[in-house]
């Protein structure tokens, strides 16, 4: 007799032997859910996984379209490789025509994003600024291991005001700054 048929006859043992099948099915369902819950935002084809890929948006302001928390046991597969991030976020950046997906691996960046999404209200938006260059002098040596996200809650429309000079041109100077000014911000202590 084939081993799989023997396992089916033994009841619960079949589930244990096919743990990989259930894990892959769960992962597939999670990825389907992720692509379908972006509420009109297309799933990104561009992924930011490590510092080298995140460096493409160094210093650029990005608006968070979707934030998905993981626990460290869940995997996220990209082109056949498995990653175990704290969170995955879909961002709208001026440098790219389509939304991009970023994986969050640093605990402090994750904590700041969680606090921001707990406190954000209707009519506000969460903006981030990723930087590898804004560290205090003593922290530059350890920059690969430091948090890199500056997380802000801003009034609605702040992203457009900051990135598009033709958006609401009647607002200038201090009025424009107050329309963009963060309500709450989380900046790592090692950043200037």
List keywords for this structure.
192 residues, alpha+beta, 2 domains, seven-stranded mixed beta sheet, two-stranded antiparallel ribbon, 7 helices, 9 strands, 32% helix, globular
Quick take:
This protein is 32% helix and 24% strand. With 192 residues, the protein is of the alpha+beta class.
Could you characterize what this model shows?
- The structure is a single chain.
- The chain starts with a helix and ends in a 6-residue tail after the last strand.
- It is globular.
- It folds into two domains: 1-36, no CATH class; 42-186, no CATH class.
- The protein has helices spanning 3-9, 13-17, 19-36, 51-54, 107-119, 158-163, 173-180; strands at residues 47-48, 61-69, 76-78, 81-83, 87-93, 100-104, 124-130, 149-155, 184-186.
- Residues 5-9, 12-16 and 36-42 have low confidence and may be disordered.
- It has seven helices and nine strands.
- It has 192 residues and is α+β, with helices and mostly antiparallel strands.
- The strands form two sheets. A seven-stranded mixed β-sheet has the order 1-6-5-2-7-8-9.
């Amino acid at each position: 007799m084939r081993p799989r048929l023997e396992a089916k006859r033994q009841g619960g043992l079949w589930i244990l032997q096919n743990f990989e099948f259930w894990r892959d099915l769960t992962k597939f369902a999670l990825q389907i859910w992720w692509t379908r819950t972006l509420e009109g935002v297309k799933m990104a084809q561009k992924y930011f996984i490590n510092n080298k890929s995140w460096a493409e948006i160094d210093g650029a302001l990005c608006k968070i379209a979707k934030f998905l928390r993981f626990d460290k046991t869940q995997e996220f597969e990209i082109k056949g490789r498995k990653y175990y991030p704290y969170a995955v976020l879909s961002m709208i950046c001026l440098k790219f025509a389509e939304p991009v997906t970023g994986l969050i691996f640093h605990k402090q960046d994750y904590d700041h994003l969680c606090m921001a999404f707990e406190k954000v209200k209707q009519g506000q938006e969460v903006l981030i600024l990723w930087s590898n260059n804004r560290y205090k002098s003593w922290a530059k040596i350890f920059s690969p291991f430091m948090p890199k996200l500056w997380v802000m809650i801003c009034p609605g429309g702040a992203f457009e005001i900051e990135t598009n000079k033709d958006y609401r041109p009647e607002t200038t100077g201090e009025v424009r700054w107050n329309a963009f000014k963060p309500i709450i911000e989380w900046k790592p202590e090692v950043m200037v």
